[in-house]
Every structure is written in C-alpha cells, then in structure tokens.
Design a protein that fits this description.
This protein is α+β, with helices and mostly antiparallel strands. It has 16 helices and 9 strands.
C-alpha cells in the first residue's frame, strides 16, 4: 500500500523549496544554525497559521502532541524559545520573497466572471493593524498608540493580493504608492478611492503605461465639460468628457478624462467617478468602483481568519515574518481552491484543512466530502486514498 503524506506535508510540497533555499542563501540565514533551519521555522509558523494557534506555548504543546506525524519534517526543536529566536533573527525578506514566488503560479485560478470584459481588474488600498505601543515601540502611530499599515494591490478577478508593502501606521497611502515598485500592467483597470488622487502620478504611471484607472472624484475638483454623452442606463445621472481646470491639474494631466455621475439606490448617495476609459459603459464604470469593496473584504477576512492581529513576537522582524507567512498561507488556500475547483468558500476550505491537517489522506479526496463525513479520516488515518 502506497504511503500517503499528511495534508500538512502536501501543503509544503506545493511550495518551491529550491527557490526558498536560494532566498535563505542570499541572506546566509542558516549559517551556524544547529537545531532550527529557516524551512523548519517556516513549517512551524505555517502550521500555527493553519491551526489558528494563539501563542508560542500553544504551538509548542500542539507540536509535541503531533510529534509522531511531524518526524518527516526534520524538526529537531519545538521549544518556544527557539521559535521566538528564529522569528526575531531570521530576515523576514525570505518569506516576502517566497510570497512573490508563489504568486507567479497562483494567478488565473479563480477568475471572477462578473464583468463582461477581459481586462485585469485591480484595487489599491491599505489597512491598519493596531499594536500596543509599549510592546511594539518601533511601530509608533501616535503618542499612545502603535500601528503598522499594509498597502495592497488586490486582483479582484483572481481574489489574490498581487502586491503588498508595509509602512508605519501614520504613513500616507499616496506617498507609499508613489514610492513603491508597483507596476500597473497595460490594459489593466485599477480602482482607487479619493486618498490616491495625484494627477501627475495617474498620468505618468497609469495612463502613459496604457493602463486604465477608475477614481472617485474629490468635491473641490475644478473641471470644464467638453461633451455630454447619451444616457441609457439606470442610476447613471450623467456621462461627460471633461478637461481639468487649474494650472497645476492641467499641467499634471493635460489630456481629457471622463466623468460619470451615478446614483446608488442602496446607499441613497450620488457618486462621481473619473476615468481615462472611454470604451466601457457608464454603468460598468460604476460597477467597477463598487467592486473595489472586494479589497475591504480581503482585509477583513485576513484579520478575522489569519494571525495578523496578534503576534508571537514583539520585534519588527517577528511581526513581519508572521504577516508574510500568513500571506503565503492565503495564496496556498487560493491555489488549492482554484486547482481543485472547490465550490465552497475560502473560509470553509480553511476550516476543513484545520480539521484534517495532520491526517494522511489526499487533499482532493478531503475536499470532495461534506463536513459530516470528515470523521472517516479520524478512524482511518493510514487508509490509501486515490488522487483524482
């Protein structure tokens, strides 16, 4: 009978371990290491994410209980002090690099077919993670509060973060976006709220790169209407071609833009969006901005279901290590959901993997079961199952 690895081992097998070792070598992170390599540290922290562990003591106890099923990982130490030292000293850049390596194979697995156009659809925004200033003095947000910010370019169609960068909690969203290495791909449609208005940046980094933007308008923006388009969609109040007014705005963005005014019955509010896309209908432009809410749901999801609000260490490196490994786990979940055509929610997938993480069976077979059938793997741990 063929031996079947645990679900957790199958998760690790999805990762590009050779590339991971390259990243470790770039930082000499395993030099002089005796008991816990970077791969062991990563495995333990990924286990903590998948099982939703609350503390280093909780991790240590759980690993000791599962010792017989973890022997194949080569973990020589499970002591919480060793884990804490690794999180403090091993560069978080290793796990950031792993995230972007995994991102290459995580795209186009769960396409959102809500829209009838083929352009990549992305939203940019940030979320604040509050921290106790006494425990995290490096994360100063105000005199009495600590925080860091995660800035994200979120692929709405694929439901995965395409670009993530962190900053101080008081960091300006627009400044971070302008100073980052983010590249807006040609033909992509990028959605922003009012915090990201900078006409020179929009013109040079998006419009001139053959990409599109949909942006909510600031109330005090001056413009001149050049043309009114016909209106034939519900909720659309006006659809116009405009030119920006004022020496600075016109100099920063010297071409015409489109202004769509839309009334939303659900919120009973009127919104104005400006865009450099003149091809899609006005109603579609409004729907694109509504889709920006997906990035808010992403932030809410990772805060509720991943360990990115409570941390196992207080150093900056330990915090960022935990965040990047959480993001790697999110990509793994998205990859599995897309590859297996799992019809349940990402939360359902998370709960299933949590229940059977250390069982020896196939991920494919587990995801074909209903929740009330999972007991089978509790009593038939070594049963041979066939991959579909």
């Amino acid at each position: 009978m063929k031996h079947v690895n645990t679900i957790f081992n199958q998760l690790l097998d999805l990762l590009p371990k050779n590339r991971f070792e390259t990243f470790v070598g770039q930082h000499n992170a395993d030099r002089y290491v005796k008991k816990m390599s970077c791969w062991n540290q990563f495995s333990i922290m990924l286990y903590a994410q998948a099982k939703g562990k609350e503390s280093l003591r909780d991790i240590e106890t759980s690993l000791n209980v599962q010792e017989q099923k973890l022997y194949h990982l080569g973990i020589q130490s499970k002591a919480r002090s060793t884990i804490a030292e690794a999180n403090r000293d091993r560069p978080y850049k290793i796990y950031e690099s792993l995230f972007y390596e995994l991102l290459k194979v995580s795209k186009r697995l769960t396409p959102n077919k809500k829209f009838n156009f083929d352009n990549p659809l992305k939203a940019m925004d940030s979320t604040t993670i509050t921290l106790c200033l006494k425990l995290f003095p490096w994360a100063k947000f105000s005199k009495t509060k600590g925080a860091i910010k995660l800035h994200c370019l979120f692929d709405i169609r694929d439901q995965i973060p395409e670009f993530i960068v962190h900053s101080e909690g008081r960091g300006n969203d627009l400044a971070v976006a302008k100073n980052s290495d983010i590249v807006f791909s040609p033909d992509s449609i990028n959605v922003f709220d009012r915090a990201y208005i900078d006409f020179e940046w929009l013109y040079k980094k998006i419009h001139k790169k053959k990409a599109y933007f949909v942006h909510r308008l600031k109330r005090n923006l001056s413009y001149h209407v050049l043309e009114d388009y016909a209106i034939n969609e519900k909720g659309v109040i006006s659809d116009q071609k405009i030119v920006l007014m004022g020496s600075t705005a016109l100099e920063d963005y010297p071409e015409d833009v489109r202004l769509v005014t839309y009334y939303d019955k659900e919120t009973e509010k009127t919104y104005q969006f400006f865009t450099n896309n003149f091809e899609l209908s006005a109603g579609t432009i409004a729907d694109i901005y509504k889709a920006r809410w997906q990035i808010e749901l992403f932030f809410k999801w990772i805060k509720q279901h991943l360990k990115v609000k409570t941390f196992f260490g207080t150093s900056k490196n330990a915090v960022l290590t935990q965040i990047w490994i959480a993001m790697v786990y999110y990509l793994l979940l998205a990859y599995i959901k897309g590859k297996t055509k799992f019809t349940g929610s990402l939360l359902s997938l998370t709960r299933i993997l949590n229940e059977v993480l250390m069982d020896r069976t196939s991920i494919i077979d587990v995801l074909g079961l209903k929740h009330n059938q999972l007991y089978r793997f509790r009593i038939r741990d070594d049963t041979q199952l066939t991959l579909c």
